[in-house]
Structures are given as structure tokens and as C-alpha cells.
Write a structure and sequence with these properties.
The protein is an alpha+beta fold and 233 residues long. The protein is 15% helix and 30% strand.
Length: 233
């Protein structure tokens, strides 16, 4: 075991501490931090250790670049952590685009009413979407629905395809994620039922072209907001 390393011409780094995790089949239940030492002949060893404190974790997070700066959250943001953000978007009328090789090509470019939506981004690339039944800021128990679009999986995860994604999930880029979603081309259906419309997905959008509001009865229920947000990857 070595206590130091060197990456190209970067500053040499040394082992400062080791974290040991203890637990069983149900998960991790305890953690301790240990400082490295060498004995009289130079062999490395770890000290007896001490319980990890919140201050230690805060310092480690800062060193790893996970510190969040002080932010005033906009009303649309529902959840915010260093690597996860979820926000809602009110109902709106926007155009939709379909691939020229898809069954929806005749619907491409028209204006359609869309239900209120919840977007969730984990990291800088994983985008999930659900719809809302009510056009208001949801709370933890609010009923949600399958987003009525192609390219979306069972958990609401979007197959990004050629969709240009913003470089981050910071608060300043939330609008860019929404715009990128609606500017992208929908290409294919999935195994998930996305609407209660009697004629399915294509019948739904054929009927909605030129309307001002999305009928909530055509949405497929998908539980509540808190349960969905907790289903993180």
C-alpha cells in the first residue's frame, strides 16, 4: 500500500485519511475515519480511528467540489441537492416535433397544449419527466401522471437521442432543459402506456392540435410526487 501518488505534472498528493464503512445486509450503519502512519521500519498502517462527524463530511465535500453556494430558490424548484434538481413547469401551448421517419411526422411543428410537467435532472445527463393533474405547484403528496410523450420509459426517464443537453443542471440552466426537450424530435413509442386517449398517442396529439388546454382525463396516473422523486438511480 502506498501513501502518495503523482498524476502527470500535477502536484503530488498524499493519503490524508481512510474511511471504513461497517454494516450488514440492510446497508451501512456506521463509518469511521482513520489517519495513516508508518511504523519504525516504514510499513504503513492506520490508526484506531474515530467516528465521522458532520464537519468532516462537509470538509470532504468541499474538497471534492460538491459544495453548493448559497442560492435563493425560485418558486418552480421542488428539490435541490448537489447532484439532483427537480422543478415544475406550468401548463403551456408549445410546438412539438416528430422525426421525419416516425409515424408522427404529419403532426410535426404544430402547436399543442401541454399539461403541467415535473422535470428532474440527476448529474448532468439523466432527465426524467412526469405530468401533473393540476396546474399548480405540487406538494409531496400530489398525484402525478405519465408524461404523454414518446421516447419516455416506465420511470419517466427520457431517451435523449440527439437532444442537445445543457452543460449543467444549475438553476440558471433549468429553462434550457425544458427548451431542449420541446425542440427535440420525438421518434418512437415505448412499452409504457402514455395516455388514456382511446386512439393512443397519435390520436391524442391529432385531437389536441390547435387547442388551448390539455384534458387531464387523458393522463395515465403514476402515483405521487414524493414516491417518484425518491426513485433516484
Amino acid at each position: 500500500m502506498k501513501f502518495d501518488a503523482n498524476f502527470a505534472e500535477a502536484e503530488a498528493i498524499q493519503l490524508k485519511a481512510a474511511i471504513l464503512l461497517y454494516g450488514g445486509a440492510k446497508g451501512i450503519s456506521f463509518a469511521s475515519v482513520h489517519e495513516p502512519y508508518r511504523d519504525q521500519v516504514g510499513a504503513p498502517y492506520l490508526d484506531a480511528g474515530r467516528p465521522i462527524t458532520v464537519e468532516f463530511l462537509r470538509t470532504m465535500a468541499q474538497g471534492l467540489g460538491l459544495q453548493m453556494s448559497l442560492e435563493i430558490l425560485p418558486e418552480t424548484v421542488l428539490v435541490r441537492t448537489p447532484d439532483f434538481v427537480a422543478w415544475w413547469v406550468p401548463a403551456a401551448v408549445k410546438p412539438m416535433f416528430f422525426s421525419a421517419t416516425s409515424d408522427g411526422k404529419t403532426l410535426s411543428g404544430k402547436l399543442y397544449p401541454h399539461p403541467p410537467l415535473v422535470f428532474a435532472v440527476e448529474g448532468d445527463h439523466c432527465l426524467r419527466i412526469r405530468a401533473l393533474f393540476e396546474n399548480r405547484r405540487p406538494d409531496r403528496g400530489s398525484a402525478i401522471a405519465v408524461a404523454p410523450y414518446w421516447n419516455i420509459g416506465a420511470a419517466g426517464d427520457l431517451c435523449l437521442g440527439t437532444m442537445p443537453t445543457p452543460h449543467s443542471a444549475g438553476l440558471d440552466s433549468l429553462g434550457e432543459w425544458v427548451d431542449a426537450f420541446f425542440r427535440s424530435e420525438f421518434t418512437h413509442s415505448g412499452a409504457t402506456k402514455v395516455t388514456n386517449h382511446p386512439e393512443g398517442h397519435l390520436g391524442l396529439w391529432r385531437d389536441l392540435a390547435g387547442r388551448k388546454e390539455f384534458p387531464a382525463e387523458w393522463l395515465v396516473p403514476a402515483g405521487n410526487l414524493e414516491a417518484w422523486l425518491c426513485q433516484r438511480r
